[in-house]
UniProtKB/TrEMBL annotation:
<protein>
    <submittedName>
        <fullName>Uncharacterized protein C8orf74 homolog isoform X2</fullName>
    </submittedName>
</protein>
<dbReference type="InterPro" id="IPR032727">
    <property type="entry name" value="CLAMP"/>
</dbReference>
<dbReference type="Pfam" id="PF14769">
    <property type="entry name" value="CLAMP"/>
</dbReference>
Length: 294
């Protein structure tokens, strides 16, 4: 409390509450503490800070404001473990001890303050400040994902128009996927054909090294190779025909969508100059109609 000077308490009052509490802690020569885990020290600091604010609000001189803080700290210390009756006696004795340092108005204000705060909630003060508490605290860190920055309203479109654009985009994507599937099938059939031909020719080459090939065997070899080629081409052709029909169906759906496309509100698709021209022409037409009626 030695560092609590009139200049110090004045500076505490000039700060906002968080900075004022921190500055008061330094004036009291308290070490740093965890506001969450050391709740007792935090509440005690709040009590001293509130008494300082009370004294300033009641017009105590700066020298007396420092005394109010000291008075509060001593009262809290001397009433630890006391009953409510004993606490009232301690408060009365302290007011008597300080009567030479405060005038009667300030003593009455001080008495009312502690009666309405400290004594009214005395059991709570005793429970929090008078005994050790078992604190079971768990801390969880959660990542909060903020929504993306919205685009300017000038880039917005009508809801029905947006839905139409999404449906068209889905049809376009489906067409691209169909064509991609054809290319993938071509590559797969090519690999399968090469594998089957390689397997067939490998067996023939082994036989040729031992016995040689007769005319009939060579014809069968050629026919088998042709058969493999035809099978692969047949499968590819069937798939391409099916894909072609699917793509045509998608194009028909897209054409139908475009024919039934929603019409946006005129002003929503115009630029600002066009809107201004439209408003001017509307006002001019109204003026002409008014003159015609006259």
């Amino acid at each position: 409390m030695a560092l609590l000077t009139p200049q110090g308490v004045k500076k505490v009052f000039q700060f906002q509450k968080p900075e004022g509490r921190e500055y008061l802690r330094k004036l009291l020569n308290w070490g740093e503490f965890d506001e969450v885990r050391d709740s007792r020290t935090s509440i005690l600091l709040d009590t001293l800070y509130d008494s300082l604010i009370f004294a300033v609000g009641k017009g105590f001189p700066w020298t007396k404001v420092a005394l109010v803080v000291r008075f509060t700290e001593e009262l809290l210390q001397e009433t630890k473990g006391c009953s409510i009756t004993e606490a009232i006696i301690v408060l009365a004795n302290k007011l008597r001890d300080y009567q030479e340092q405060f005038n009667m108005i300030h003593l009455l204000a001080l008495c009312d303050y502690f009666h309405n705060t400290f004594l009214r909630h005395y059991k709570l003060y005793q429970y929090v400040l008078g005994q050790d508490q078992d604190v079971n605290l768990s801390i969880a860190y959660l990542d909060v994902c903020t929504p993306p920055q919205p685009l300017p309203l000038s880039q917005g479109v009508d809801q029905e128009v947006w839905k139409h654009e999404q449906q068209v985009a889905e049809l376009d994507a489906a067409q691209v996927q169909k064509r991609t599937n054809v290319l993938l099938l071509k590559e797969a059939l090519k690999l399968e054909r090469e594998h089957r031909l390689q397997k067939m020719f490998s067996g023939v080459l082994q036989q040729q090294q031992h016995e040689g090939l007769r005319k009939e065997e060579l014809e069968n070899l050629i026919n088998e190779a042709i058969h493999i080629q035809i099978e692969c081409l047949k499968e590819l052709l069937q798939y391409e025909i099916q894909i072609t029909f699917d793509i045509l169906d998608l194009k028909l759906q897209k054409k139908t969508l475009n024919l039934n496309a929603p019409v946006p509100f005129p002003l929503s698709i115009m630029g600002q100059p066009q809107q201004d021209e439209l408003l001017k022409s509307t006002k001019a037409s109204k003026g002409k109609k008014g003159k015609a009626k006259k």
